[in-house]
Amino acid sequence: MEKHHDHHDHHHYGSSAKSILMALVLNLVFSGLELIGGLITNSAAITSDSLHSFADAVSTGIAYLFERKKSEKYSLIGGFIVSGFLIVGSAHLIIEAIERIEDPAEVNYEGMMLFAVLGVLFNLLAALATREGKSFNQKTVNLHMLEDTFSWIAVLIGAITMKLTGIHLIDPILSIAIAIYILYRAIRNLIPNLKSVLK
């Protein structure tokens, strides 16, 4: 019976690690594309989020290393680190967007829409890869990917709105809204697990 349980745990954590690795690869590839896209389109939302995506990739890499330890303790630690990166990344997005409000710039709407569609596809794939996670670590990574998917849907809607109205301030305001939402969800996800560890 004990051996069966050990085998189950090994399979559970091994599967989670593979899912997290896939999310890591997708994040790394897309963060590079996103940086190029942000510079080409002159979009604060895209350029700022490229740094956020890179932070996602780094934190997901850490989560992958911890998940390979095949331990709930290490899984929790990995989840906390991912949440921490998410909080810091959100704060960075807010600062960048505020600076952009003070100095607004014209945005390439068509390019922004193209990268928003790519953002939705890449992050949706990563979210699907980690959707069946049972560990806190993988659930946190999955939350990360889902939030980024919805963020890019918001960017797409914002780009379409800017093209129709010509209001450039929508770009940094949208960036702030996305960052606040991500920050809220990260803290909301972190607190219950922090309480369970401190008990």
CATH architecture: Up-down Bundle
- Give the rounded overall mean pLDDT: 76
- In terms of per-residue confidence, which ranges show pLDDT below 50 for 5 or more consecutive residues? 1-13
What is the approximate shape?
A: elongated
Q: Provide the helix percentage.
A: over 70%
Biggest sheet: strands, sense, closure?
none
Count of distinct strands? 0
The SS-based structural class is: mainly alpha
Please identify the top-level CATH class: Mainly Alpha
Please give a structural write-up.
α1 (2-41) runs antiparallel to α2 (44-67). It contains six helices and no strands. 88% of the residues lie in helices and 0% in strands. The model is unreliable at 1-13 (pLDDT under 50). It is an all-alpha fold and 199 residues long. The protein has helices at 2-41, 44-67, 72-102, 109-129, 136-165, 170-198. The chain is elongated, with a radius of gyration of 18 Å. It has a single domain (2-198), classed as Alpha-lytic protease prodomain-like, CATH 1.20.1510. The relative contact order is 0.16.
Give a topology summary.
Elements: H1 2-41, H2 44-67, H3 72-102, H4 109-129, H5 136-165, H6 170-198
Helix pairs in contact: 1-2, 1-4, 2-3, 2-5, 2-6, 3-5, 3-6, 4-5, 5-6
